[in-house]
Specification:
The chain is mainly beta. Helices cover about 0% and strands about 50% of the residues. It has no helices and 11 strands. The termini are far apart. The model has no long low-confidence stretch (mean pLDDT about 95).
């Protein structure tokens, strides 16, 4: 069982930056691939970024490539999402997820709101 708690969301102007964190409970954090997803009002949840257990493999949605960076610190049981050059269309609730691979997710956090004003 893994419990995930996101933090770092907030209100930012377009062009600004935010850094999201997701803290995981348990001693097996390094055995999970981690991902970030987002859901805007009226839209389905969509993939943002994922990182493998060791951090050697990373993938991004096309919409965030070059602007967002996912990273993890296995010693601190935490995954991060650095978001730069934010756009109003990045406004959403951001969720982190954990799973056996970057393409499967067994555990989800409660989400953190990111709002980008124009």
């Amino acid at each position: 069982q893994v419990q995930l708690v996101e933090s770092g969301g907030g209100l930012v102007q377009a062009g600004g930056s935010l850094r999201l964190s997701c803290a995981a409970s348990g001693r097996t954090f390094s055995s999970y691939a981690m991902g970030w997803f987002r859901q805007a009002p009226g839209n389905e949840r969509e993939f943002v970024a994922a990182i493998s257990r060791s951090g050697s493999y990373i993938t991004y949605a096309d919409s965030v490539k070059g602007r967002f960076t996912i990273s993890r610190d296995n010693a601190k049981n935490t995954v991060f999402l650095q978001m730069n050059s934010l756009k109003p269309e990045d406004t959403a609730v951001y969720y982190c997820a954990a799973g056996p691979t970057t393409r499967s997710n067994d555990y989800w956090g409660q989400g953190t709101q990111v709002t980008v004003s124009s």
